[in-house]
Structure formats: C-alpha cells, structure tokens
Amino acid sequence: MEQTSRRIAQLTLLSRLGQSLNSATDLGSLCAIVPSVLLEHCDATCVVLYPALDAESNLNPHYLRSETSDQAQQAFFLQQVQTVSEKVLATGRSQLIAPLDNQGKLPACFYCVPLRVHGKNLGTLSFFGSSGENRAPFRLEQQQLMLTCSFQIAQAIEQQLTLERLRRVSTADARNLQDISLLYRISQLLHSTLATDDLMHLILSLLVHPQGGAFQRAMLFMVNERSNSLQGILGVTRETASLILPEGLPAENQNLQISPEALSAQQQTEFSRQVMQMRLSLKEPDSCLARVVREQQAILVNRPLTSTDELAQRLVLSDHACIPLIARQQVLCVLEVDNHGTRERIDDQRLRFLELFAAQAGIALDNAQLVHHIETAHQSLRETQERLLQREKMATIGEMSASVAHELRNPLATLGGFARRLSKQLQPDSNEQQYARIIHEETERLEKMLDKILAFSRQHELTPTPYSFDRVLEQALLIEGEKLTKSGIELIIEMADNLPQLHGDAEQIDQVLINLISNARQAMPEGGKLTLRAEKAHLRGENAVRIELQDTGGGIPQELRSNIFTPFFTTRKQGTGLGLSICQRIIEHHQGELKVTNHEEGAVFTITLPTRLQQRPIKTND
User: Which long-range contacts (CB under 8 A, 24 or more apart) does 21-26 make?
Assistant: First the structure.
C-alpha cells in the first residue's frame, strides 16, 4: 500500500506539473510557477530554477521558492546553486551533495539536475532536502522523479522558447505559429486520456487527420527489450483516422469519447494488420527504426525507393520520418509517418513538428503506463486481501465445524442406538414404531452430515503418487453409473488419446468426480444428458489435463454462481453445502483449478490438474 501511495503521489505531481506547464502563457510565468508546484508536491524545503538562456529571453537570474524566509539561508542556497550549476551545465549530469553540514542546521541534501532536451542545456533545477527532525537524503526513487520533472520542464521551456521566437518572426513564418498552436491543442488532447490503448490510437489519428499532422499514414512500433526487437502495434491512414476523430479535433474543454468499437475497427483494417505482422530486429544495421532506438533521435529518410530496409520494402515507403517516443531517457515506441498517396516531401520544419509532437506523446504515454501499473498493483493487492480473508474465514469455519461435530457425534450415536432398540420392541405399523423409525433415519442423516463436516475440517499431508485418470473415472462410474441410468440420464464420454499420467491422491480425485456427477444427476431429475470430456491442456505454462462435466440441468443462476463454493451454502433442502467446498479444496491442494460456467442447456464444471506437482508436502482435506 505504501508503494501504491507513492505512485499515486508521483502521478499527482506529474499531472499537476503538466497542467501548470500547459497553462503558462510565456517563459517568465512558466519559470515562476515551476518552483511553486514542485515545492508543494515534493519533499523539499527549497526549489530553485536557474535558467541558462540567451539575453533576449528577458528572464530573472533565478527563480526561488522556499519554506524559509531567512534571507541569509536563501542567499546560501543561491550560492550553492550557482556553484554546482556551472559543473552540472558543463557535464550535463546531475549532482547530489549530502550532507550539506554536520551540525544538522541545513537541509539534509542538495540535488541539482540539468534542464536538458535534444542535447541542449536550458538551465538547472535544484532541490534542497528536508531539515529539522525529518532530515533524510533523497531516495533513488525521488531522484528519478525529479529527473522526469526536469525533462518535462525542459521540454516546456523549449516549447516556450519556440513560441517566443515565433512571436518575433514575420508573417512569412505563420506556418510555424500554426504548428505550435496545433501542438498545444494536441497536447491537451493527449493528456485528456490515461487509457494506454485509447492513447495509442489517438496519437496516430492525430498525426494523419487533416486538422492534425496531416500526414497520409502513421505507424507505431513498440520496443521489446526481452527479444531485442520492434513489434508493430498499429497502423492508421487518413481514411481510418475518422473512426477516432469523426468530427475532427474537438473544441477546447470538450472531452473526447473513444468507443471500443472504433478501436477495434481501426485495428482490424488491412493496413493496420500489415503493420501488426511486422517484427524488426534492433540489431539490423539497415533499419532506420533500429537506428532511432539506438540514437534516440528522429531520422528523416528521403526517397528510399531502392532501400534494403525491410520496413520500406514491405510498406512501399517513399519519404518517411521515424521519431522516438521517449520517457525518462528510454525509448518506449517509435513512430513512422509518410505521405504514401501524395508523395509530398517531409522537410526539416515538418520533422521539427514531429519531434515536438513525439515529446508530448511520450510524456502522455508514460503517464498512462504509470496509471496502468498503479491500477494493476491496486487490483493485485485487493485480490490478495480477499484471498487472505477467505482463507481466514475457511480456517475459522473448519475449527468451529470440527469442534461442533465432535461434540454432537456421541449424543447422536446414542439417540440412534436407542431408536433402533425401541423400534424393534414396538408393534409393527404403530404410530410409536413409525416415530422411532423417523428418529433413527434422521440421526443417520445427521451423522452423515457430521462426517462431511469432519472431512471439510480435517487435514493431513498429501504424498503424490502417479495415477491414471482413466482408472479414476472407471472407479467413479462404478458407483454413479447405475444411478445415472435409473435417472434416465445419457452419459457421453469424450476422452482424448494418450492422456498423460497425473500425480496426487487418486482416491480424493475420485471423490471429486463422484460428487460432481452426483450433483449433475440431482440437477436433472427428469433425465437429460451428461457429457464428460478429458483432454490435454496447460496450466500456468505447465502440462495439465482438463476435465469437463457438462449437464443439461438448466445451469446455475448468475446471482448464485459466486457462492456455490462457499461452505454451508446450498439450495437443496437435504444438502449440507459442503460437497463443492470439499471438491474445491481437494483440487486447490492438488495445485489445480475448479471453475463453473453455464452453457445453453446447463452448467459446465471444469477441472484442470497439472501432470506434475511441486516438490513440497501439501496439506489437504480428507
């Protein structure tokens, strides 16, 4: 939970910082707001932004925000920043100083990171750690977050620098201003969704839509570090972009709704399937995509009609550009765009547009992945908590059941014995003799119920031995086969050839089959059909055998399906509610799975058992 809380705090900082950077109207307001946002959301006592730009920028020498109003201490902070920033700007590497003093009067540490983007140093960003009782140096996780913030700020500063240059140019450069305005609108759209799939489709659709990048085709390739390759993820054309943006770019402050049907339709197009089938090695020397990943820089390729590049040949590329999506100094994906229909050339100005677009897309994609990781971790924690609660509940029920069963067994045996004796001494067919017989029958039923309760609560060590499922099924049918025939139930057996041997307790698996077959028989009182299948399968990547029991008893209502394995839950008047609970425990202790689903005519119970158990003693019920 602590790790999840930290991830949420990190995401909050990145989101707040992104909103602040997007809201800045000029470079001065951007530099002024950055230290305030970081001081509010970081574990720091002072934040200093030290720009290193040309004189035309008209910026202050520094932008400082601190929790202390002591001017002497602030002067000391600025002196440290100026001294260390010169070294950081010269090397392009961050520097951590801890501690600042040995008396504990100053902050615990000082961390200075460069504002660097596309090989250019735009200044430094300095963080002074906590002071007082909570003095502690920045953790590695905090340092990485600060580097991420500095990269995002550097990109925003660079965008503002570009905007300021465009404000000074003549009307002949109106196209640049239009591109920047478009990038700002695109940036808002990209940060409007945190769903990774939606974001990927939106990125490519914005690149090819006439109101967006206006390219003819766009492709996305994901970096797979394990296989050292690039995998095609999606391809979008000018025509298919309308599936995601049917009315063009939405107005400002208007949410964009992307339906699952639109995502599926765009993914299933012929061009997208062609891209998805491509897998390119990162070691290929002639691959422009591999070069982009290695160099982490955009590449413009002009007229490669005779290129040996596999991508260019298979997709019939003419002019095309390859742009990396970078987050935290790592290439996540590579974008590929071209003008396949018009053969319009891609010049340096358009390449610059793509670089700025990719910078925003990379940040948005990284944020979306962070959210996905947090959601996954939260779901995993919730499932773990539910499993622990269920195990605790089952253990409590088992202990209580065993105690109650032991206390009731002896009195029931006594009652049953006296009822049998009394029945023999009374007149046949008399009311008293009938009452004694009923007492005897009910005590027998209670004794059987106690046997099931004890079976549910009792545990012992399981020693796995090889056994054949054919033999287990044969033994179960010796007991239940005749009952199925008398009930008018047709039994159909579909056994795959050469089923592998299983390991475990054959008697317990036999008990599971008998219980499930008996349940299916009781679900079809007017007769029906029971189909039993067994085939090879896989469970958690290992060889396994899957057994299915499919009946025509009408199925299990949706509202009851989640409770059928709960101890003492039953819908039958004469049931104990322990049969399926015992079956599930036996299968789980054999490291398998027991699931239930419905089909058109009834229920399907599916057992999946691994062919080999892990080499450790396993506790189970008997």
Answer: 21/152, 21/153, 21/156, 22/184, 22/187, 22/188, 22/191, 24/156, 24/160, 26/160, 26/163, 26/164
- For 129-228, list the strands marked E by DSSP: 217-224
Q: Is the dihedral of CA 203, 205, 210, 211 positive or negative?
A: negative
User: What pTM was estimated for this model as a whole?
Assistant: 0.42
Highest-confidence range of 173-187, 411-425, 450-464, 584-598, by mean pLDDT? 584-598
User: Each residue of 13-28: pLDDT tens digit?
Assistant: 888 888 888 888 888 8
Q: How many CB atoms lie within 10 A of CB 411?
A: 11
Give CA–CA dist 203/250, Å, rounded. 14
Residue 620: band (very low, low, confident or very high) from pLDDT cuts 50, 70, 90? very low
Contact 466, 504 (CB under 8 A): no
Q: CB 64: neighbour CB atoms within 10 A?
A: 18
For residues 401-427, average pLDDT: 68
Q: How far apart are CA 504 and CA 342, in angstroms?
A: 67
**Tokens, residue 148:** 């991420």
pLDDT confidence band for 617 (50 / 70 / 90):
very low
Tokens of 437: 């017989």
pLDDT at 165: 77
* DSSP-assigned letter for residue 133: G
Phi, psi (rounded to 5 degrees) for 226: -65, -45
Asked if residue 464 lies in contact with residue 504, where contact means CB atoms within 8 angstroms, the answer is: yes
Q: Are 283 and 228 in contact (CB under 8 A)?
A: yes
Interatomic CA distance for residues 97 and 138, integer angstroms: 10
Q: Which pLDDT score is estimated for 619?
A: 47
Q: Which long-range contacts does 241-244 make (Cβ < 8 Å, 24+ apart)?
A: 241/204, 241/205, 241/208, 241/209, 241/212, 242/209, 243/205, 244/201, 244/202, 244/205
Cis ω before 99 (30° cut-off from 0): yes
Which residue in the block uniquely carries the two structure tokens 């478009």?
182
Pairwise CA distance, residues 24 & 474, whole Å = 77
Q: Which helix (H) or strand (E) holds 490?
A: strand 489-495
Strands 603-610 and 542-550: antiparallel
Angle between helix 27-41 and helix 2-23 axes, rounded to 10 deg:
160
Alpha carbon distance 315, 218 (integer Å): 11
Q: Do 350 and 177 meet the contact criterion of CB atoms below 8 Å apart?
A: no
3 state SS of 616: coil
The Cα–Cα gap between 551 and 528 comes to 7
556 touches 515 (CB < 8 A): no
Mapped onto helix, strand or coil, the DSSP state of residue 619 is strand
**C-alpha–C-alpha distance, residues 187 and 367, integer Å:** 13
Residue 511 CB: number of other CB atoms within 10 A?
20
Burial of 164 (0-12, 13-18, 19+ CB in 10 A): middle
Q: Which amino acid is at 205?
A: S
What confidence score (pLDDT) does residue 84 get?
92
What is the pLDDT averaged over residues 263-273? 89
In this prediction, residue 621 has a pLDDT band, given cuts at 50, 70 and 90, of very low
Distances (CA, A) of 316 to 334, 439, 543: 18, 88, 44
| pLDDT > 90? residue 133 | no
Element (DSSP H or E) covering residue 7: helix 2-23
Instruction: Tell me which amino acid residue 288 is.
Output: C
